[in-house]
Amino acid sequence: MSVLVFAESQGGEFKKAAFEAVTYGYKTAQVLGTECVALCLGDAPNAAQLGQYGASKVLHVADAALNNFDSLAYTGAIAAAVEAAGATVVVMMHGSTGKGLVGCVSARLGAGSAPGVNQIPTNDGSFKVKKNVFSGKAIAEVELKSAIKVISVMGNSFQPEVVGSDAPVEALAAAVPASRVSVKEVSRVKGTVPLPEAELVVSAGRGMKGPENWGIIEEMAEILGAATACSRPVADTHWRPHHEHVGQTGVAIRPNLYFAIGISGAIQHLAGVSSSKVIVVINKDPEAPFFKAADYGVCADLFDVVPKLNEALKNFKANA
Amino acid sequence: MKLLVCVSKTPDTTAKISFNADHTEFNEAGITFIMNPYDEWYALVRAMELKEATGGTVTLINVGPASNDAVIRKGLAIGADDAVRIDCNPTSSLYVAKQIAEYAKEQNYDMVFCGKETIDYNGSEVGGMVADMLAMPFISYASEMEMNGNTATIKRDIEGGKETIEVDTPFVLSAAKGLAEQRIPNMRGIMQARRKPINVVSPVDFEDVSSVVSYELPPAKAACKMVDPENMEELVRLLHEEAKII
Ligand SMILES: Cc1cc2nc3c(=O)[nH]c(=O)nc-3n(C[C@H](O)[C@H](O)[C@H](O)COP(=O)(O)OP(=O)(O)OC[C@H]3O[C@@H](n4cnc5c(N)ncnc54)[C@H](O)[C@@H]3O)c2cc1C
Ligand SMILES: Nc1ncnc2c1ncn2[C@@H]1O[C@H](COP(=O)(O)O)[C@@H](O)[C@H]1O
User: Fold this and answer.
1) Does residue B240 belong to any structural domain of this protein?
2) Domain range holding B34?
3) Closest-CA residue of chain B to A313
4) Is the pLDDT of residue B174 over 90?
5) Is B137 in contact with B172 (CB distance < 8 Å)?
6) For a substitution probing ligand 2, which of B118, B122, B133, B212 has the most ligand atoms within 8 Å of its CB?
């Protein structure tokens, strides 16, 4: 018995999400009274490092065909690792790879699945785990009854915790089918924190009046080391790039801090951000619906208040 | 090209969510149901565009009870040729996927479209399940697609950017915003939809392995603390000392 964690690497490097996954797997293994085994696919020179987050060993399928995501190849490799590790639970992150994979893996293993969970499972005779449903408007507890269970974890639900040291890495030979998908290009914005991974997010909406005014938002994000986001109309009118669009039709995020500046707080926007741990709203309209979802509010003209806030943040950082 | 579009029914986004007395079932009273937006706006419309460009057929499939027919008719009004409804009350994603795959495996579809997720369960897994059951590649979160013969060039949304891939038919794709522009059905479409067939099929046996045991509402937020706009130092202090996040 074991909990198998698929730890995704990107160009041979692990992102924070991989450590979150192992931390989640380690905690789940403790609940089940078993061990946590990590799995790396493709290039992963730092595989042993996953031991620090609780993996007792790391399986590595080094086939270069696995350097890019292909659902059939990845699913085949994961199924082989499940068998090798005698796994009864499979854990992955609910990011762009996990979302494409969680269904495939559960179908392949005939396993019940819980996609996008944000809590550790309970195991009092039956295996249950909670996830958000109705775009964050409710929480469902799901019971999985199959011998093997598949879970994907919402980003930023569990912070990585170092609990041990490097783990032994075992090469796993898995017959990986030739990929039917060829990756032509990967373009990522450089130098900034990808939105779904960000702990701090500064987001702005139509209240900004135009793209030329975003300097104060970028400045704030830079002071805080935060990612930037925006409402849908802002992305639709190309004031900001599409990958910044959060909400029901955009990305769903759960940062520790979400700053909503000049955003009204429409239900479709809240659907993507309401699970944020702390929400701060800056809006000049005291009736803006966002204040109802906020922890802290400032009712004022953003063009007055954001520069003042930036000064205060700079002073705070300078003295911290 | 022979295209299959998976469509599901979900409560309208603005629906107020409540449950029965023992919190085991979602309370449907007074809820307006719609076609899942990703299925309607992006998956179905992109399938229609492909049919218009190269010929072929667009079939809708839904796994659900007769009360789903209204949603299916809307898809027919947007332009799908015909529809299949697997007559049952599905209990999990795996159950739904099994029904779709069993139906599709005899039909040789060039592409199966679904939405990136349903806005009620937020699973984003039915498409992947169907793909694996049919041994087809699954291309998730597609926000642009061009066809050249049997080869599709697809842009996928990934963390902080886009991935461009090429894949030959057959495959299963899940549609994200950007794949197409929403279409509003016109009067002619609505009239024609009434005469188009919805083929009702019995489900295959499948023993389910997961279920929702209870629902709860998220804990209520404490009232928003308002901060004096002239005193941003105070906001910074609260975030540092009280919320402990900076
Ligand atoms: C099916 C569907 C899906 C959708 N999906 C999404 C989604 O994923 N994400 C999303 O964001 N939206 C989505 N929308 C759109 C959503 O309903 C709202 O229209 C949108 O979120 C509004 O964006 P906004 O708050 O930036 O603009 P507005 O609603 O125009 O709000 C601007 C706010 O800025 C404030 N403001 C103006 N000037 C100032 C100033 N000088 N100082 C301070 N405050 C100021 C105003 O008081 C107002 O509250 C969706 C809509 C539908 C129908
Ligand atoms: N009952 C259903 N019938 C047909 N298609 C469905 C059904 N449920 C989900 N789907 C399809 O699968 C996609 C993803 O659903 P989900 O995995 O529930 O988020 C949806 O956007 C639909 O295209």
Assistant:
1) no
2) 2-218
3) B236
4) yes
5) yes
6) B118
Distance from the B187 Cα atom to the nearest Cα atom in chain A, whole angstroms: 28
List average pLDDT for each run of 10 residues in chain A, which is 320 residues long: 96 93 98 97 96 98 92 97 98 95 98 96 95 92 97 94 98 91 88 82 98 98 95 96 91 94 96 94 97 97 98 94
How far is the C-alpha of A15 from the C-alpha of A193, rounded, in Å? 11
Q: What is the DSSP string of B223-235?
A: PPEE--TT-HHHH
Question: Which residue of chain B has the CA closest to A178?
Answer: B137
**Domains of chain A, CATH where assigned:** 2-171 (3.40.50.620), 195-319 (3.40.50.1220)
- Mutation to test the B interface, candidates A223, A251, A280, A319, most B Cβ within 10 Å: A280
Question: How much is the ipTM here?
Answer: 0.93
Whether pTM > 0.80 for this model: the answer is: yes
Residues of chain B contacting A300 with CB distance shorter than 8 Å: 229
Structural domain count, chain B? 1
pLDDT of residue A188: 83
Which ligand minimizes its atom distance to the CA of A203?
1
The closest of B155, B177, B189, B172 to B41, measured between CA atoms, is B177
Contact call for A143 and B236, based on CB within 8 A? no
Q: How far apart are CA A130 and CA A110, in angstroms?
A: 21
